[in-house]
Specification:
about 120 residues; Four Helix Bundle (Hemerythrin (Met), subunit A)
Length: about 120
């Protein structure tokens, strides 16, 4: 598998949005990942408080941010979290938030590896 076929669509989408500027795309992605990590803490806090509307609000924002950046997996997870919160299914939220946390970690690791691969290929 060559390096271009190993790249994830999310990275290609962001690079395209930035007119091929890899550094700008990854700077945006790194900032987004930091926002996601902060939001995961906020989701945990609001879930422990059993504040379903606050959880839904955070998930709604995450859903929009992920969609804007073409990160479909996180977009779908945020939809699930938002729906569970709006239906006050607090029991489901912990598992859904754990899944999203795992996805955020994978995205962060993948972004790092992709940036390294692209940088070494220059």
């Amino acid at each position: 598998m060559n390096s271009s076929s190993a790249r994830l669509a999310e990275f290609d989408y962001l690079i395209c949005q930035h007119g091929g500027d890899v550094d700008a795309a990854f700077n945006e992605l790194e900032a987004f990942i930091q926002e996601l990590q902060d939001d995961m803490v906020a989701l945990d806090r609001q879930t422990k408080r059993r504040d379903a509307m606050a959880v839904a609000s955070i998930a709604y924002r995450l859903k929009s941010s992920a969609k804007l950046r073409g990160i479909d997996l996180l977009h779908q997870s945020a939809i699930q979290i938002e729906q569970s919160a709006r239906r006050n299914r607090m029991g489901q939220l912990n598992a859904e938030i754990d899944l999203m946390r795992y996805q955020v970690e994978l995205l962060a690791q993948s972004a790092y590896l992709q940036k390294e691969a692209l940088s070494s290929g220059r």
